[in-house]
């Protein structure tokens, strides 16, 4: 592995919204990695070596041993497999693939080759998620209500891949909620029923209602991509000993409607991507892998069990 004075040499594949907003600032601030190159069809980043294809990067830069995939899920598998085949360590944006089988295949390949594969879930690093998990650890969960609602025109402008098969539609943000749910609950959950609302001109749903069950508990998720105004990224967990509410995507936590003084209360997204790169560096140092497919399984099961309803066409 090439470690320079400023960290492990790393390349990014797909320089779009999330790479520019979060990955590149986190890499530059973190100190564990150095952005040594990009793979971008649209030119990449000023001052950083760019390759038009992943094959070109793999051939030209055998010294770059860590590759972070920030492109949409439908086009990620072939590149991630090629990177692992070429002996590189791989980090994947969420969702880790367009299907479960893809991700399982990558995990098996990484294990066989002794490489790191890190399937990231950035929302698990929101400020209050660890505290929520700790608070729930010794409580009995009765009920969960998830409201994950945002305006797709504001948060995903021009992202046509979201509306194409494999792009998940409203489940692209909702999988963040499912990543938090599977992280904080002390018991497993599975989908029992779903209603999926597909615009007549789209291949993915614009809204959904999902029901879940776990031992002694039920959960519901109300998901909406046409929700105007401030987004609602909230999860309420009713237990035998009080109700926990996580809001602002896991940043803020309240117990019985009181924001406890001992808890982190930091509105907004802070530190999620620095934490991801810190975790990737830790996995590389330990020669380890982290691939948790539970959030993607919940989405896949919602598609498998969901009743489909056709609604008005969506035009951005
Ligand atoms: P995006 O801006 O629409 O696309 C990312 C980049 O991927 C594009 O700029 C392009 O990079 C490359 N790309 C796009 N379509 C492609 C195609 N058909 N074939 C090959 N490359 C393609 O998407 P994004 O918002 O950054 O999201 C990327 C991933 O990050 C998704 O899995 C998403 O769920 C996740 N994510 C997004 C956000 C967010 O707020 N947007 C937040 C967290 C996670 P080049 O032009 O450089 O080739």
Features:
316 residues, alpha/beta, Rossmann fold, Dihydrodipicolinate Reductase, domain 2, 2 domains, 8-stranded mixed sheet, binds NADP nicotinamide-adenine-dinucleotide phosphate
Mean pLDDT, all residues: 94
Radius of gyration: 20 Å
The name of the CATH topology of the largest domain is Dihydrodipicolinate Reductase, domain 2
Q: Could you state the order of secondary-structure elements as H and E?
A: EEHEEHEHEHEHEHHEEEEEEHHE
Unreliable stretches covering 5 or more consecutive residues: 261-267
Integer count of domains: 2
> Share of helix among residues?
25-40%
CATH architecture of the largest domain: 2-Layer Sandwich
Could you name the CATH class of the largest domain?
Answer: Alpha Beta
- What is the H level of CATH, i.e. the homologous superfamily of the largest domain? Dihydrodipicolinate Reductase, domain 2
Morphology call:
globular
The biggest beta sheet is recorded as: 8 strands, mixed
Structural class: alpha/beta
Supply the number of helical segments: 9
How many E-type strands?
Answer: 15
> In percent, how much strand structure appears in the residues?
25-35%
Question: What is the end-to-end distance?
Answer: 44 Å
Strand order of the largest sheet: 14-13-12-8-11-10-9-15
User: Which molecules are bound in this entry?
Assistant: NADP nicotinamide-adenine-dinucleotide phosphate
């Amino acid at each position: 592995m090439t470690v320079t004075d400023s960290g492990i040499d790393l390349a990014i594949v797909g320089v779009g919204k999330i790479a520019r907003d979060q990955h590149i600032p986190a890499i530059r601030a973190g100190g564990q990695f150095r952005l040594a190159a990009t793979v971008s069809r649209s030119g990449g980043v000023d001052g950083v070596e760019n390759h038009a294809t992943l094959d070109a990067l793999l051939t030209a830069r055998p010294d770059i041993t860590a590759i972070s995939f920030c492109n949409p899920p439908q086009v990620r598998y072939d590149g991630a497999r090629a990177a692992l085949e070429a002996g590189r360590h791989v980090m994947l944006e969420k969702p880790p693939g367009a299907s479960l089988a893809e991700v399982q295949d990558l995990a098996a390949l990484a294990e066989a080759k002794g490489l790191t594969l890190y399937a990231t879930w950035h929302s698990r690093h929101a400020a209050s998620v660890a505290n929520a998990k700790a608070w729930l650890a010794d409580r009995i969960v009765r009920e969960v209500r998830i409201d994950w609602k945002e305006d797709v025109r504001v948060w995903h402008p021009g992202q046509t891949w979201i509306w194409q098969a494999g792009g998940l539609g409203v489940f692209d943000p909702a999988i963040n909620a499912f990543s938090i749910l599977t992280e904080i609950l002390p018991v497993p959950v599975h989908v029992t029923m779903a209603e999926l609302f597909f615009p007549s001109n789209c291949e993915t749903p614009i809204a959904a209602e999902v029901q879940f069950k776990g031992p002694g508990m039920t959960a519901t998720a109300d998901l909406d991509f046409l929700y105007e105004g401030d987004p609602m990224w909230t999860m309420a967990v009713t237990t035998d000993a009080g109700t926990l509410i996580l809001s602002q995507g896991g940043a803020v936590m309240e117990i019985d409607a009181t924001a406890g003084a001992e808890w982190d209360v930091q509105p907004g997204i802070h530190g999620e991507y620095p934490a991801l790169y810190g975790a990737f560096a830790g996995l590389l140092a330990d020669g380890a892998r982290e691939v948790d497919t539970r959030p993607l399984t919940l989405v896949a099961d919602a598609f498998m069990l969901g009743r489909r309803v056709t609604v008005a066409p969506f035009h951005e």
